[in-house]
């Protein structure tokens, strides 16, 4: 069929078998329809792209908050010392990193976090955004930890 040479009925009949096959494989279940309706009522998105952005934002925030809680527990409870200048505290609270190693680890974490956050936003996957949020908070922790130790302990 040449562009503009056929009728609309011919085009519709040619694409009908493909559409029927897609409906059989991709038919949403009653649970999925109920979940979609619940999301639309609660979040009230303007369009499909805003839903992906919302999923990405919530995934990133949940990952960041989860790892922030874990880091707070690790620093305050598990690795906490008797005093501020406790000599038993390790140089780094997560791993035995020196400056050279951190200068390699932090950019790598930031690069992977950026890739994961971008992929999660484009695909609308909360788990990918969640992992990106975790890596971003770890990178921020590795940046802030030496500055905090320098300020508080004078190292």
Please tell me about this protein's structure.
The chain is mainly alpha-helical and 155 residues long. The protein has two domains: 1-44, no CATH class; 48-153, no CATH class. Helix content is 75%, strand content 0%. The protein has helices at 8-26, 30-43, 48-78, 99-123, 126-153. α3 packs antiparallel against α4 (99-123), α3 runs parallel beside α5 (126-153) and α4 (99-123) runs antiparallel to α5 (126-153).
Descriptive labels:
single chain; 155 residues
What's a quick, concise take on this entry?
By secondary structure, this protein is mainly α.
What does the secondary structure layout of this molecule look like, with pairings?
Elements: H1 8-26, H2 30-43, H3 48-78, H4 99-123, H5 126-153
Helix pairs in contact: 3-4, 3-5, 4-5
Low-pLDDT runs = none
Radius of gyration: 25 Å
| Span of the ends, CA to CA | 77 Å
Count the DSSP helices.
5
- Bulk shape: elongated
What is the makeup of the main sheet?
Answer: none
Number of domains: 2
Structural class: mainly alpha
Number of E-type strands? 0
Strand content: under 5%
- Please write the string of helix (H) and strand (E) elements: HHHHH
């Amino acid at each position: 069929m040449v562009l503009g040479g056929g009728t609309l009925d011919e085009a519709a009949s040619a694409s009908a078998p493909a559409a029927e096959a897609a409906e059989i494989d991709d038919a949403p279940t009653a649970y999925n329809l109920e979940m979609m309706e619940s999301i639309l009522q609660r979040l009230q998105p303007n369009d499909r792209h805003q839903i992906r952005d919302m999923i990405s934002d919530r995934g990133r925030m949940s990952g960041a908050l989860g790892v922030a809680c874990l880091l707070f527990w690790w620093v305050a409870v598990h690795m906490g010392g008797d005093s501020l200048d406790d000599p038993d505290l390790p140089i780094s609270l997560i791993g035995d990193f020196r400056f050279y190693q951190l200068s390699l680890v932090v950019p790598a974490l930031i690069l992977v976090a950026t890739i994961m956050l971008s992929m999660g936003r484009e695909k609308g996957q909360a788990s990918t955004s969640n992992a990106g949020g975790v890596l971003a908070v770890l990178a921020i922790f590795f940046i802030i930890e030496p500055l905090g130790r320098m300020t508080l302990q004078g190292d």
